[in-house]
């Protein structure tokens, strides 16, 4: 979560798209709304008398142990999940998730913790500690004589990638660190730059079917950069990487009225990318520029100009940063934004179907919903609907301010025969008063597909 206070302030001024937008229920009412997993969308008036489309709701089947981003909780903060399928025994598949300074967590399909791995400590007392931001998977890489599946993690604290070999039945836990100790910083030239924390942030992996080479696409915190890294096994059985090329997305945008606009933020801060996913069938990268929208471009970062397939509602809204309040004072909405996403755009994931069908899912963090787009780029990624993850009961809440999401549309044993969606919950309830609480929700993907098909 970044600049959430700023974004909320901007969102208060956005009214032009409300006739077709989905808004979150009031905080005091969220625990009591949308309990029916098959609820259909309907229109109602909100407290201000504006017409609002109420999206269908799905409910989680399980949730992971709560994490607390404080000293007592080890500064653990749930962020981004990935789903690893055990092909030999799908019911014994895993969810691997980042917990920022809390490192990594590995869960089984009952959402039980199987393994906790710490982020590397700071190199020196005044240096930044390890902070695991995003995670993705690579299948069949050869870090040793035997091919293996890997979890790849962006370590924002050290500006590096970390690699973990996956062995479901290994004594001590499924993950083993196979990172080359000599792996270089992704963006920074020295430790001073690393400590400034404009470092490795969002992450998506991709294997080129033509060359067989595997890559990671990594975004940079507080910058618009995305870099392509080739993953390279060493003779010692470790994994390192080399930079192939870097692309910078725009930070300033020309509006239809002829003016220029940049998203409001702290001085020196550019609109960053975090959520990313690559379609393996066609090598298309989708990148969520948090308070701008979703971009479509080639995963090898070559070819034509990136295409902005959808914008956040706040797109084009001017703002002035107030250093005392550390918030943006928004101006009038000129009406150039989209109608399906409220900043920040966060976790992107794919629901793949045969013959190139399926959906691109995006977390609309500003209104606690998820937007679904046609996966087929040739169809211009048309909007296909949306949903929210609502409370299942008084003990199992839904998802708010979702950072990361992962979907897998294949059978995962008897518990999830229709596949699985895992979403981060930025505010676990009921929680403890004045203590940050986050975790991950497990949702039957079949209920999501039903909601999108209704």
Plain-language structure description:
By secondary structure, this protein is mainly beta. Helix content is 5%, strand content 38%. It has three helices and 31 strands. It has helices at residues 4-11, 191-196, 445-453; strands at residues 42-45, 51-54, 57-58, 62-63, 81-84, 94-98, 104-107, 113-117, 132-141, 148-155, 160-166, 175-177, 200-207, 214-220, 225-233, 239-248, 253-254, 260-261, 273-279, 284-289, 293-298, 307-311, 319-322, 327-330, 345-352, 358-364, 369-374, 383-389, 405-408, 420-425, 439-444. The strands form nine sheets. Strands 3-28-27-26-25 form a five-stranded mixed beta sheet, covered by helices on one side. A four-stranded antiparallel beta sheet has the order 4-31-30-29. A hairpin with a 5-residue loop joins strand 1 and strand 2. The longest helix has 9 residues, at 445-453. The chain is globular. The chain starts with a helix and ends with a helix. The model is unreliable at 1-52 (pLDDT under 50).
Structure classification: mainly beta
Strand content: 35-45%
What is the overall shape? globular
Q: Considering DSSP H and I runs of 4 or more, what fraction of the residues is helical? A: under 10%
Overall radius of gyration? 21 Å
Number of helical stretches of at least 4 residues: 3
The termini sit apart by 31 Å
Q: Tally the beta strands.
A: 31
Largest sheet: 5 strands, mixed
Low-confidence stretches: 1-52
Q: Going across the major beta sheet, what is the strand order?
A: 3-28-27-26-25
On the 0 to 100 scale, the average pLDDT is 89
Question: Secondary structure elements and their pairing?
Answer:
Elements: H1 4-11, E1 42-45, E2 51-54, E3 57-58, E4 62-63, E5 81-84, E6 94-98, E7 104-107, E8 113-117, E9 132-141, E10 148-155, E11 160-166, E12 175-177, H2 191-196, E13 200-207, E14 214-220, E15 225-233, E16 239-248, E17 253-254, E18 260-261, E19 273-279, E20 284-289, E21 293-298, E22 307-311, E23 319-322, E24 327-330, E25 345-352, E26 358-364, E27 369-374, E28 383-389, E29 405-408, E30 420-425, E31 439-444, H3 445-453
Parallel strand pairs: 3-28
Antiparallel strand pairs: 1-2, 4-31, 5-6, 6-7, 7-8, 9-10, 10-11, 11-12, 13-14, 14-15, 15-16, 17-18, 19-20, 20-21, 21-22, 23-24, 25-26, 26-27, 27-28, 29-30, 30-31
């Amino acid at each position: 979560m970044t600049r959430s206070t700023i974004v909320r302030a901007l969102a208060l001024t956005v009214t032009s798209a409300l006739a077709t937008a989905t808004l979150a229920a009031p905080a005091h009412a969220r625990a009591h709304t949308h309990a029916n997993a098959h609820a259909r969308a309907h229109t109602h008036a909100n407290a201000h008398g504006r017409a609002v489309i109420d999206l269908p709701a799905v409910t989680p089947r399980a949730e992971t142990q709560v994490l607390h981003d404080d000293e007592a909780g080890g500064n653990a903060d749930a962020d981004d999940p990935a789903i690893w399928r055990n092909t030999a025994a799908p019911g014994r598949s895993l969810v691997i998730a980042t917990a920022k300074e809390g490192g990594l967590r590995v869960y089984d399909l009952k959402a039980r913790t199987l393994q906790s791995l710490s982020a590397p400590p700071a190199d020196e007392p005044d240096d930044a500690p390890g902070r695991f931001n995003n995670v993705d998977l690579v299948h069949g890489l050869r870090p040793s004589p035997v091919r293996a599946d890997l979890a790849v993690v962006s370590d924002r604290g050290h500006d590096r990638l970390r690699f973990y070999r996956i062995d479901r039945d290994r004594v001590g836990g499924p993950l083993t660190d196979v990172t080359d100790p000599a792996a270089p910083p992704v963006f920074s030239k020295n430790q001073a730059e690393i400590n400034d924390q404009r470092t490795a942030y969002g992450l998506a992996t991709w294997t080129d079917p033509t060359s067989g080479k595997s890559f990671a696409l990594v975004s940079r915190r507080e910058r618009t950069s995305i870099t392509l890294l080739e993953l390279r096994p060493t003779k010692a059985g470790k994994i390192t990487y080399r930079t192939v090329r870097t692309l910078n997305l725009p930070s300033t945008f020309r509006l239809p009225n002829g003016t220029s606009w940049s998203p409001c933020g702290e001085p020196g801060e550019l609109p960053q990318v975090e959520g990313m996913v690559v379609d393996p069938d066609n090598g298309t990268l989708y990148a969520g520029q948090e308070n701008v929208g979703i971009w479509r471009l080639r995963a090898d970062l070559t070819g034509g100009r990136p295409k902005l397939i959808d914008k956040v509602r706040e797109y084009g809204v001017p703002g002035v940063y107030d250093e005392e309040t550390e918030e943006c004072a928004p101006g009038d909405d000129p009406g150039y934004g989209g109608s399906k996403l409220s900043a920040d755009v966060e976790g992107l994931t794919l629901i793949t179907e045969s013959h190139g069908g399926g959906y691109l899912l995006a977390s609309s963090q500003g209104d606690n919903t998820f937007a679904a787009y046609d996966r087929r780029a040739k169809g211009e990624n048309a909007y296909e609907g949306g949903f929210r993850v609502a409370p299942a009961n008084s003990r199992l809440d839904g998802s708010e301010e979702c950072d990361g999401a992962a979907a897998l549309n294949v059978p995962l044993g008897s518990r999830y025969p229709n596949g699985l969606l895992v979403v981060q919950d930025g505010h676990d309830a009921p929680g403890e008063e004045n203590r940050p609480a986050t975790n991950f929700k497990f949702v039957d993907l079949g209920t999501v597909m039903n909601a999108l098909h209704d």
